[in-house]
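Suppose you are handed only these lines of text.
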Amino acid sequence: PVSAAPVPSPTGAAGRSPAPSGAPVAPELLRWIGEVAALTRPDRIHFVTGTDAEFAELTDALVAAGTFTRLTGKPNSFHVVSDPSDVARVEDRTFICSERERDAGPTNNWRDPAAMKAEMTELYRGCMRGRTLYVVPFCMGPLDAAKPRLGVEITDSAYVVTSMRVMTRIGTGALDLINTGLPWVKALHSVGAPVEPGTTDAVWPCNDTKYIVHFPEERAIWSFGSGYGGNALLGKKCYSLRIASAMARDEGWLAEHMLILKLTSPSDVVHYVAAAFPSACGKTNLAMLEPTIPGWRVETLGDDIAWMEFGADGRLYATNPEFGLFGVAPGTGWDTNPNAMRAIAAGNSVFTNVALTDDGDVWWEGMTPEPPAHLTDWQGREWTPSGLAADGSVLASAGQPAAHPNSRFCTPITQCPTLAAEYHEPRGVPISAILFGGRRKTTVPLVLQARDWQHGVFLGATIASETTAAATGAVGVVRRDPMAMLPFIGYDAGDYLQHWLDLARAPGRRMPAVFSVNWFRRDADGGFLWPGFGENARVLKWVVERLEGTAPAVRTPIGDVPVPGGLDLDGVEVTPEQLTRALAVDGQEWKRELPLIQEWLDSLGTTVPAALRDELDGLRERLG
Ligand code: GDP
Ligand code: PGA
Ligand code: MN
Ligand code: MN
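From them, the structure of the protein bound to 2-phosphoglycolic acid can be written out as follows.
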């Protein structure tokens, strides 16, 4: 239901043609823009073209508005701080509004689609008053894909437009494809904060009421009230994971929360590896890893999302639908992730909720071993390492991190020096191995291999991880996070797991080997047992040796682990004791997991695949 009020004419802000190539704009797109404009009442409409000049115009305007600070330390780069309440994904405000509640399943919030639309329509009514309505045509994945995956985001946030430009292929190229009549996803976003006449806009407009809503049957997204990346850059989590997972179920492929990397051995054998870790559990770092073992090379294809489809040879081919990196800033430094640091140094980046140095650059915890002597923290407050001001008084920021734990860099992936040439290949790369991982202080060993595909799906389906600052809510709580997709499965979780099992059943399928990894096991003092980062190459090497049948393994009740001395440890700084504990499979700890896994499978209801219950029975038996 929209009002019958006159609709602003959908031409560019400065009289630009909406379709710079000259093709007529798809009637359905014009109709939708008109409908949204009539409801939300923007002052003007801007068709986003995606040019450098347009990016310059938008960022200049954001600087003038006080939202962006132009960095002097990096070219064409900006610092922005959000409202302190709008710093992460809001899982409790995220909904899958399928026609039937059963199709959203027990792991998603659900509301009847018509009821949700009625409620949100009232929220959207007049919500763009005083603002520009930006029309952002976009394409997830290369424009020259056989089936380009298109969308249009309507947003009233220039921050979103500039971030979408980094993260996806936006503008004229995508619009031209849409105008040829190809299908596209409608993605509506508003920060939900009209600018009333006579008032000035907030630096970070948002609304206390937030909704991140998906209509999977209609392939549509409605987002309201937040400007944060995961809630507002609708090509990313909303389209490429939640909506795409529903598309993938219908069409026989996978949309997954996975990095993709290319691994080349000293003898020039190439393997492509995908890995699913929950948010803030190491995907971006592993994707850009600089191996510490001589002769091994890692190149980057993706750091967050993988779309995987079977090739004619029965192998699973992965592409990265994104165009940028939206990386966790804290912990990213020259010693942990030098390739991310190089990508950032090239500029063209937006930094959200990091600290600002006195000389106009950014800083966050873990960037350098020692913090600068003086900073402006992410909340705009004076910050010093000691927590004391020059006059000896205690600062309000004392004892708090200078950057928000979920602060982010948003950087073009093409600036990553390790980007693999295959990134640009629309058919993707054949995946040899899938790693499932998470943050577990205890129980889960550094690495183990699943016995077969079904066992691998069981490992992925039952993996648990400690919650992080990437989503609002408590941090450090262990929860089951199947395939690192708990917040992103766009349909019923049992059906999703069945889909994973079914994929292997078609004739001629050559499924990847499956592994579980845990970089985050701790010793009694709370320190990490494994040094991680570049040293994780040693685990990747073992994975390759398993693929090639050259590394023996010990069969344990939970899977196959390296034999003593099986990991290449030449030059690594771990004591034999630490290594033993990092790799240990403790039967008692695993027996304590059994009822938790049982409870998790039970919580999924009647659609949980029987094969996974069989796997649990098998595990229980093997543990004795
Ligand atoms: P993503 O959100 O899954 O992409 O995770 P990131 O790669 O951005 O990493 C999230 C956080 O985990 C950062 O603070 C990293 O420094 C940290 N991290 C990543 N890999 C490792 C590792 O191997 N060991 C340890 N101890 N921390 C890691
Ligand atoms: P991440 O991406 O997985 O790199 O943290 C953002 C998110 O999942 O919210
Ligand atoms: Mn993610
Ligand atoms: Mn990441």
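What can we learn from it? Residues 1-17 have pLDDT under 50 and may be disordered. Residues 257, 279, 304 surround manganese (II) ion (ligand 3) (CB under 6 Å).
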